[in-house]
Specification:
The structure holds two protein chains of two kinds. By secondary structure, chain A is α/β, with parallel strands linked by helices. Chain A has eight helices and ten strands. Helix content of chain B is 73%, strand content 0%. Chain B is built from 23 helices and no strands. Classes of the chains: A alpha/beta, B mainly alpha.
């Protein structure tokens, strides 16, 4: 369970995020949408303790996360390229991540085997460094590394951008399977209303740092969102 | 067109985000340059005297001429190792209707207008007055200065060509060293005297009216070689081998795995060093710096200068730690968010960095053991310096690293690169070098150098004994500074 209580983040006196209360329960798939500058990435960075909250706090499983380490073992995340170690090959990067989480080489190999379809034969065995991969393949590498540690909480920032259509569909399938089989809590932000409504059971719309909509996904959600953004 | 290029280049450097903020760094660099300038000028004036003492039977100008070929070759080697290739964002200009030859000419001429390249003149002009003109007259002195300028052009252009053609990889460097060693061997075994050849060639060049012209033609040839290279390799992908290198060399430090998470992080940092240009350059230059002691220990001038000897001892026994320590934590900047969200507790992260610096110190210390041959004095100095490095300096570096929030760009590599360096790097130098030198200096005045040595050794030992507590303090400090570091590292220059 993730709680954000009275959470604000100010930059130069201006609030870029101001959330009075968001509670994400276990197994929930939480979609975050909003235009550029709405505060999506800021919210995720606060949950991952990468920036300091101006006031309020984030709690995971009823424990504060700020300047603590214990939440890290159950969280998998990929926000941007600063989550990639670009001078490693994808294999080395996966092995490093796996070992940090105490996985054996066999665990990692088995996991990579399950990702084979998603990688589409382009990531493993090419002996390329991550910095030489295309943007789309870098993204796939980062997403896979976030999934590698069997997270109870998964946080992905715009996972669909830069992916080709086939990979987008495959990623949606992977996420839906994880939801059903492993009951993991997912936080996903996206600019693509189609994808996010397909994957997430709950959608929160941010605008200038404020929660303006908090809805459970139904047949009509996509229409509702489209009409909201069509200004 | 060329003026537009140079204007863009000017804008690029002045609009770099760090340009104004880096003022303090620039002042330090400026002071360093001033120091070398003074040395150069003094050397220029005094060299004839020194040469006269070394070879009393010869005119200083002739003695100087005999060494010219070696000097030029060495300068070429240094340029080959350290001179960055001048670049232009070729693709953004290539699509515009600009003649390619203009782009190439610009690339080649750019380094020639860099004032740093002409530092040699600060030596050459004084020397031409005191050394050359007595032997060759005023005309000879002028020709000498011209020849030096043209030689700078030649070396700059020729080094660029060699670097573009062969790359600055180890085989290229080794073959270069072999050639130099070969020349030295010819000389040593008296098969063929390069000194003699050098003396005759430069004697001719300075005396002859067309001497300058011949050297100018040489630099023209070097220019032509570069042009030829670009003509052969039309597309950047053909000569920029790094950009298209398909297979990455991958080394695995599996032996580090047995140390768990800490070992994993150390193995990661080792890969970081070996896979970036800038860190690799530092690695090579640290090998050269190991020899720094040879400039001081055999020299009687420094026998009594205890503070200077301590400086050298700290510098050479800790060279790896000192050079890489300034980047510690900082160099993880490009994936710091990743490290901070993975299952790595702060203490393990700090410890991994500690052990990395510790092993670098131990390696440097072992490599400098041959210096013990210079006597028991040096032996004691080195041991004290080693203790101080391990016990004090490593902790200073780790603690200091939490203040340096600048993102380090490791892919752009040159030895003189000041990117990601801030005045904080220089503040760290105070406990690092100034305190031990100061202590030794002050106590030596009262003939109590040993007391100072004991103080330094005790400080070092204390740091080793209490390392756990010290690392915990640094860990807490890292947590306190975590957000500032994350934010700073996200900002790209």
């Amino acid at each position: 369970m993730i709680e954000a209580i009275n959470l604000t983040k100010l930059y130069g006196g201006i609030a870029v995020l101001n959330i009075s209360s968001i509670i994400i329960s276990e197994g929930e798939s939480f979609g975050l949408v909003g235009n550029n500058g709405a505060g999506k990435t800021t919210f995720f960075r606060l949950i991952l303790d990468l920036i300091e909250a101006s006031s309020g706090e984030v709690r995971i499983d009823d424990k504060k996360i700020a300047r603590r380490d214990d939440w890290k073992s159950k969280t998998g995340s990929f926000l941007d390229e600063s989550f990639l170690i670009d001078f490693l090959t994808p294999e080395e990067y996966f092995n490093f991540t796996g070992r940090v989480y105490g996985k054996s080489e066999g665990d990692v190999t088995a996991f990579l085997e399950s990702m084979k379809e998603f990688f589409n034969g382009e990531i493993l065995g090419s002996k390329k460094l991550i910095r030489d991969l295309s943007k789309g393949n870098q993204k796939k590498t980062g997403i896979a590394a976030a999934l590698l540690c069997d997270p109870q909480i998964l946080i992905l920032d715009e996972p669909f951008t830069a992916l080709d259509p086939t990979s987008q569909i495959r990623l949606k399938r992977i996420l839906n399977e994880l939801k059903v089989n492993k009951n993991i809590t997912m936080l996903i932000s996206s600019h693509d209303l189609n994808h996010v409504t397909e994957v997430c059971g709950r959608i929160v719309v941010l605008e200038k740092g404020l929660v303006v909509k908090d809805i459970h996904t139904t047949q009509d959600t996509l229409k509702e969102l489209e009409s909201y953004f069509a200004v | 067109m060329y003026s537009t290029f140079f204007k863009h280049y000017w804008l690029k450097s002045t609009r770099a985000p760090g340009y104004y903020k880096n003022l303090i760094v620039n002042i330090f660099v400026g002071l360093g340059v001033l120091y070398f300038l003074t040395i150069f000028v003094l050397l220029g004036f005094l060299l004839p005297k020194i040469l006269k003492e070394a070879a009393p039977q010869l005119d200083p100008a002739f003695t100087f001429n005999t060494t010219m070929i070696f000097v030029i070759t060495l300068a070429l080697l240094f340029r080959f190792l350290f001179q960055p290739l001048s670049t232009i964002n070729l693709q953004s200009y290539q699509v515009l209707p600009i003649k390619r030859s203009k782009l190439v000419n610009y690339l080649l001429i750019k380094p020639l207008i860099n004032p740093m390249n002409y530092l040699t003149l600060c030596f050459a002009i004084p020397f031409s007055i005191t050394g050359i003109s007595p032997a060759y007259g005023i005309g000879g002195a002028f020709r000498f200065i011209l020849i030096v300028i043209f030689l700078i052009w030649f070396n700059t252009l020729f080094a660029t060509f060699l670097k573009r053609k062969f790359g600055s990889n180890i085989p290229a460097i080794v073959s270069f060293l072999v050639i130099v060693a070969g020349l030295a061997a010819l000389e040593y075994f008296k098969i063929y005297s390069i000194f003699d050849l050098s003396q005759r060639v430069f004697n001719f060049l300075i005396e002859s009216k067309i001497g300058g012209l011949i050297v100018l033609m040489l630099s023209g040839m070097a220019f032509g070689l570069n042009k030829w290279f670009f003509a052969q390799n039309y597309y950047p992908e053909n000569f920029d081998k790094k950009a298209t290198k398909k297979q990455a060399e991958t080394q695995d430090f599996t032996f580090m795995q047995r140390f768990g998470k800490i070992g994993e992080i150390i193995a990661l940092e080792m890969k970081l060093v070996l896979r970036h240009k800038r860190t690799k350059n530092v690695l090579y230059s640290s090998i050269l710096f190991l020899l720094y002691g040879l400039m001081f220990y055999p020299n009687h001038m420094y026998k009594e200068n205890d503070a200077m000897l301590m400086f050298i001892a700290i510098f050479v026994t800790g060279i790896g730690m000192i050079l890489f320590g300034q980047w510690i934590i900082n160099w993880d900047g490009s994936y710091f968010d990743f490290l901070m969200t993975r299952d790595i507790d702060t203490q393990s992260y700090i410890k991994a960095n500690y052990f990395l610096l510790l092993s670098l110190s131990v390696i440097s210390f072992i490599l400098t053991t041959p210096y013990f041959l210079f006597g028991p004095n040096i032996l004691i100095n080195h041991i004290v310096a080693f203790l101080y490095n391990v016990g004090v300096n490593i902790h200073v570096y780790l603690f200091g690293a939490t203040f340096n929030t600048k993102r380090l760009e490791l892919t752009k590599g040159s030895a003189m690169n000041m990117q990601g360096v801030s005045y904080k790097n220089f503040i760290v130098m105070i406990p690092l070098l100034v305190i031990p030198m100061g202590l030794i200096g002050i106590f030596s005045l009262f003939a109590a150098k040993n007391t100072a040595l004991i103080i330094l050794a005790v400080l070092g030992l204390a740091g080793i004994v209490f390392r756990k507590q010290l690392l915990e303090i640094t860990g807490k400090q890292l947590l306190r500074r975590k957000y500032a570091l994350c934010e700073g590292f996200r900002k790209k220059d």
